[in-house]
Amino acid sequence: MFFLWPQYLWLLVALPLLPLLYLWLLRRRGKPAVRYSSLGVVRAAVAGTHWRRHVPPALVLLACSVLLVAAARPAAQVTLPWARATIMLSIDVSLSMRVTDVKPTRLVAAQDAAKLFLRDLPRNIEVGLVTFAGSSQIAQRATLDRALLVEAINGFQMQMGTAVGSSIVQCLAELFPDHGIDVGDMVFGSKRQGRSLDDRAKPPPKQIEPVAPGSYNSAAIILLSDGRRTTGIDTLVAAKMAADRGVRIYVVGLGTVDGEAFSAEGMPMYLRLDEPTLREVARMTGGEYHHADTAERLRSVYETLGSRLQVQTRETELAGPLALIAALLAGAAAVLSLIWFRRIA
What we know:
CATH superfamily of the largest domain: von Willebrand factor, type A domain
Largest sheet: 6 strands, mixed
Radius of gyration: 32 Å
Structural class: alpha/beta
CATH class of the largest domain: Alpha Beta
Distance between the termini: 35 Å
Number of helices: 12
CATH topology of the largest domain: Rossmann fold
Helix content: 40-55%
């Protein structure tokens, strides 16, 4: 625990004065009682209930103590249920995903791990699905319907190219529909031909005030890739867009780091994982990077991410709860005083 305004803790030094003030008031109240009343009658009246008179003041003293601690604004790292509402799964479907170094193939292993992740994820968290190769596509908009997501995962179609950055921007466009993010405009320019009516209806790009990386608690992106960017938006430019919006990206690198590149149907296809860039994406956005070189390792990574995303440790200020406790203590003191003495004192 730590305090945001520790200087207010000096007020606790005044607390011992309150019991002294209370004793002084008791002595002052006792003098008229001796002068004008029979001491025997007083003793008989308070017999068996002497301790009650001290309970309300003790509660008030405790309430003041708690309130002074609250004034210093204590804060602590508290583990809370995961508050995010949406997870975007972005999965590489480039032709290199048909390689069998991860059994039975990289693509099948990725499909199985994604379905296992969905099975174990809490049902109240929406999940969206983006696939990417030479371009990025929305395979399934964010939904609570796990059956629709499994159907979309089973329907993956592989293509040429690897547009890692475009997939990140596509996820951001889904998470922030009012920001006017357009993947096509970023790749081909805003004056491209053949725009649909839906594209023309999109709002212009919104100017945002950058926030702290990882501070957006309503969504996250899980990105799986087995290669390196060959087309589309620059990966680190896309990561900067996510970081400015506070969205964490959890990156899973699939396959081997030492693979070679070869030509397939006239286009280069990389089997070498671009780990430095993927690690930088995770670092920039406050996420994590995991490498999976086997199907078992990939399933383990997804299980880890699933459990990690369900709870989070957050810096939480405790001044509000402490102030509430102080109010309850003061209220209890007033109620007991009314019940026992028919007055608030």
